[in-house]
Amino acid sequence: MTQNMLASHLDEAAAIIRGRLGSFRPRVALVLGSGLNPLAEEIEGPIRIPYADVPHMKTSTAEGHVGRFVAGALSGVRVIAMQGRLHGYEGYSAVEVAFPVWLMRRLGATTLVTTNAAGGIDESLSPGDFCVMSDHINLTGRNPIANADAAGMAERFFSMTGAYDPVLRAVALDVAARAGIAAREGVYLGLLGPSFETPAEIRAFRALGADTVAMSVCEEVIAARHSGMRVLGISLVSNMAAGIEGASPTGAEVMDVAKTRESQFSTLIRGILGSGAFADGEGPRA
User: Fold this and answer.
1) Closest CA to 58 of 33, 92, 106, 10
2) How far is CA 31 from CA 136, 227, 232, 256, 286, in A?
């Protein structure tokens, strides 16, 4: 039988991180997207591990992505956060993008909360709103399980129905409503990037049923579901998509809007974690 090199690499990486974490075992994995990295600075008792210190782990090159794991407590829940993610547009394969999700699962995390900045396609959205992902459309042209080693770690053919946990979505929307934070549900569409979309593409995506669009998340969620994790996805609408109300998005616009919503984002994620949906040592309950 041939050795599963991906599983071996994950074991090596997990061993290094466990050596730094000691007895700490995370329950929730957080992926902090563009402009949302500052939340990791609020983690209590932080253990910071640069990606460069983890064997077989790639490093972040995107603007504003710090490129390290931060483990500790947030709202009384044991978390491990990616302070900056990996993207296909950085030249990384789907397996490399998914690697840290599988790694955090190996470390004990049973739930993935993935966040990003996205463009608004639905015109009822406005920059600064949050959109809780109800489903996604993967137009990256990639899937991390389309790899013999990745497929060998769990059942190759698996359902993506209900990929975004309905209980956690309801919790997120309730927390937002109680805090007076503008949030709604919507379908997220993921692309490879790094170029922003054309107005014609946005018109096509609207016809497909997409409400938001960006350049991440899908490969992470596929890997998480393949490994049995529950998933919550939240986008910050950082701009309107190309052609909507004359929009022509820029990277600077994304970062500027994210900065204005740092406090609300913290309130939202802390409220979700502190809602009681995550009992210490357990995943959320339906």
Assistant:
1) 92
2) 17, 16, 10, 20, 23
Apex CA 150: angle with CA 146 and CA 151, to 5°? Answer: 70
Q: Which amino acid is at 266?
A: S
The two tokens of residue 228 are 């049995």
* CB under 8 A, 24+ apart: contacts of 178-183: 178/271, 179/264, 179/267, 179/268, 179/271, 181/130, 181/264, 181/267, 181/268, 182/126, 182/128, 182/129, 182/130, 183/129, 183/130, 183/131, 183/132, 183/268
Helices (H), the chain: 5-21, 94-106, 148-151, 166-179, 199-208, 218-226, 251-260, 262-273
pLDDT digits (tens, 9 = 90+) for 83-136: 999 999 999 999 999 999 999 999 999 999 999 999 999 999 999 999 999 999
CA distance 120 to 202: 10
Token digits of residue 50: 């640069």
